[in-house]
Amino acid sequence: MNVLELQSVSKSFWIPDEHRNTVREHLFAAFRPRPLRELRVLESVSLTLRRGEALGLMGANGSGKSTLLKILCGIYVPDAGRVVTHAPVTPILELGIGWNPELDAVDNVYLIGTLMGLSLAELRRDVDEILDFAELRPFARMHLKHYSSGMAARLAYAVAFRAVRDVLILDEILAVGDAGFKQRCEERYRQLRARGHSTIIVSHDPRIISTFCDRALLLERGRFVMDGPAPEVAATYLAHLTRVERTE
Amino acid sequence: MTQPLLPVADEPAASAVVGARGQDASPRVAWAALAWTLVRTDFKARYHGTFSGFAWALLKPAGIFLVLMVVFSFIFPDPTYKLQLIVGLFLWDFFAESTKTGLASLHAKAFLFKKMRVPLWVLVLASIANPLITLAVFSVVIVGFLSLAGAPPSPQGLALFLVYCAALTLLVAGFSLAASVLFLRYRDLNQVWDVMAQAGFFVAPIIYPLGIVPERLHFYFYLWPPTPIIEFSRAALVSHTVPSLIGHVYLALEVIAAVTIGVLVMRRYGPRAAEYV
Fold it and tell me: Cβ contact (<8 Å) for B15 and A87?
């Protein structure tokens, strides 16, 4: 059974030659044409994620991975095509979650936790364990603006791992933290898989895709160019990268 | 010592909405819990989590009231002027503060909806909560002030005042829904609104009684939404009269128009908000 489907999704961004971001700029240039350049990021992309499946997503920088993930998570709206979800999606994009730097870790956990669908009762019960998982209990009352990027990312993983109800989307999984934290993340990830959760993992690391995914897709200039067993796609991506480096 | 593994989530939520183009891919969020958390964390961030911080923030409107009362009491010797002024000024303070906060609400919370699907309307409406708390405190102050001045409002007057406060909140909500999402595209909208609000302070009969304006112009003054709210509140609390039915109809139309425009603009531009931050 599919839990998530993308059907012929396309997405473009229209880049103006001249930026107009204010009322003043719009008023003073109301009668001056503003040429727009189309930046096609995704072109008729389709994918399916089955229940319990771990899908890897690989592609060079600028291939459209981030936009694809944002469409999957409902952050961006596709220009064409359909996104069909049969299960709630919990994302960690671009190595983190949006934190309020003026709040401490506990309040941020409450804020993001409720956004991810946790109830206040669940948060009250589990906030200490979330902080322990991130190894941040001693810094629980420190404002996030004083956290390092690694600490913030660890907290993001801890909240998302706790909040996930069905589909988990991880952008650059295990790219943060020390060996101990990575090991706990891997253990938690396997635990989720064993419970039947579906996951999408985006990574440049062939080892991660081969180890943690059943199937993988290779994205190139907004199109899928390969869909197959994770180790094969990872090997192709690696070979492609090596070829590009030699050419350069 | 082994580090803990997290407890697993409770039973998976029922299937999310099946949809196309901008479907609900997020977990089923309990809006009430989210709104409460937003209000609580906003309060903490604004007032450092203390009631003394909150009380400190009340000093500004209270100080303005004192200054205006001292200055304009000489110009307008009406014995009820002080009472009229306090009602008008505190309602205006809520209007100015909440529209300013509401306009900037999505920009201020962009860190949330850039990386997760978030119901934008909850972010916008929650941002009005803190000015609303201030209005509630001021309402108690107003009633206390009127009682001390020997003119306590009647129960009917208080009920009407609550209705007008609700109407003002709806007006602000409609404005904020539209302005917050437009502010992501027009980054000087806050400056434009600042100028408009400053002019609006003098259009609304806050420091002067509307009676000094020729009656044939009153209709135009009433088109500025804070005017009917302030005038009607004064009638209910200070003059102990009930404004006309036609006045209430106009006010209701203004509220309906503001909310409708707010919802329509949010529905039109909200789905692509994340692309503009």
Answer: yes
CB B24 to CB A103 under 8 A? no
B66: contact with A, CB 8 A cutoff: no
CB distance B173 to B103 below 8 Å? no
Q: A2-247 falls under which CATH superfamily?
A: P-loop containing nucleotide triphosphate hydrolases (3.40.50.300)
Any A CB within 8 A of B188 CB: yes
Q: Does B156 touch chain A (CB under 8 A)?
A: no
Whether A73 sits inside 8 A of B25 (CB atoms) is yes
Using DSSP's 3-state secondary structure scheme, residue A233 falls into helix
- Please report the DSSP string for chain B in residue order: -PPPPPPPPSSPPPPPPP-SSS---S----HHHHHHHHHHHHHHHHHTT-HHHHHHHHHHHHHHHHHHHHHHHHH---TTHHHHHHHHHHHHHHHHHHHHHHHHHHHHTHHHHTTS---HHHHHHHHTHHHHHHHHHHHHHHHHHHHHTT-PPPHHHHHHHHHHHHHHHHHHHHHHHHHHHHHTT-TTHHHHHHHHHHHHHHHTTSSS-GGGS-GGGHHHHHHSTHHHHHHHHHIIIII-----HHHHHHHHHHHHHHHHHHHHHHHHHGGGGGGG-
pLDDT, tens only, A11-30 = 999 988 888 888 888 888 88
pLDDT digits (tens, 9 = 90+) for B141-181: 888 888 888 889 999 999 999 999 999 999 999 999 999 99
What ipTM does the predicted assembly reach? Answer: 0.86
What DSSP line would sit under A57-103, residue for residue?
Answer: EEE-TTSSHHHHHHHHTTSS--SEEEEEESS-EEEEBTTB----TTS
